[in-house]
Amino acid sequence: MLSSILQQVGNVPDIVFSIGYPRNNGKPTTEEVIGFFKGKGIQFREFPYDGLKVIQYRGLVRNEQLRRAACDWILFADCDMVYHPKFFENLSWQLKHRVRFRRGKRILSARRVSLDKGFCKDYFNNADKRIYPCVVDSAGTLVESWPVFEISRNCGAGYFQLVNRKSCLEITGGQYVDPKANWDWGWFRGHRMQGARSDMQFRSKMHGVRQIRTMPQYHLNHERDNEFRRHLEIQR
């Protein structure tokens, strides 16, 4: 994802990554990845948490990110997405020049190309010999030739939920989800797996979804909790 952002071309809007993460977690750690890409010019706003207690409930993290955001548009997405080199130039143009999007009160969602699960797993577990963090050359076009699992317009939990920040704050009162009625579940309470359900609550608050046609965005598939019946902390 970060490499594909670094490689955006054309009239690219100002992009700032807002990242929620547990401290000193992963190999490499999130802090190491952030530090590397800061050196390449990407801007970050960091939301680090001690341990995994809060981070397992996505809606709670997004509550804090939404309250502290300082931007015109917020794109909620997971880190397993990769973007065509002109993705954000095209998206920015549409948001500025098409009234139905600029004045919209609903969430904007876009088609995604979800790549073949078996191919992705084999690639990242076996074929990929890179030592991370690093810049993946031509990240946004590298995956164009990879086999496709499905092309979907559904508004998936972590794929693409784009909102106008001002409208979002007016409608939701600055809450992605009510913390007392959060549908997310975590693996610390006997569920063993993680379930992100607050996104459905957020879409309901925002009066539903409207589609926007973008340049290709690719979903890199990976191991999932439901395949192993337990939470995978190393799945990405």
Account of the protein in words:
By secondary structure, the protein is an alpha/beta fold. The protein has one domain (about 1-230): Spore Coat Polysaccharide Biosynthesis Protein SpsA, Chain A (Alpha-Beta Complex), CATH 3.90.550.10. It is about 30% helix and about 20% strand. It has 10 helices and 10 strands. The protein has helices at about 1-5, 30-40, 60-65, 85-95, 100, 115-125, 140, 165-170, 200-205, 225-230, and strands at about 15-20, 45-50, 75, 80-85, 105-110, 110-115, 150, 160-165, 210, 215-220. Strands 4-10-6-7 form a 4-stranded mixed sheet. The protein has a two-stranded parallel ribbon with strand order 1-2. Strand 1, helix 2 and strand 2 form a beta-alpha-beta unit. The chain is globular, with a radius of gyration of 17 Å. The protein starts with a helix and ends in an 8-residue tail after the last helix.
Number of domains: 1
| Poorly predicted ranges | none
CATH H-level name... which superfamily?
Spore Coat Polysaccharide Biosynthesis Protein SpsA, Chain A
Class of secondary structure makeup: alpha/beta
Q: Describe the biggest sheet?
A: 4 strands, mixed
Q: Tell me the radius of gyration.
A: 17 Å
Quickly give the CATH architecture.
Alpha-Beta Complex
- Along the chain, the helix and strand elements come as HEHEHEEHHEEHHEEHHEEH
Helical segment count: 10
**Strands in their spatial order, largest beta sheet:** 4-10-6-7
Mean pLDDT metric = 90
CATH class: Alpha Beta
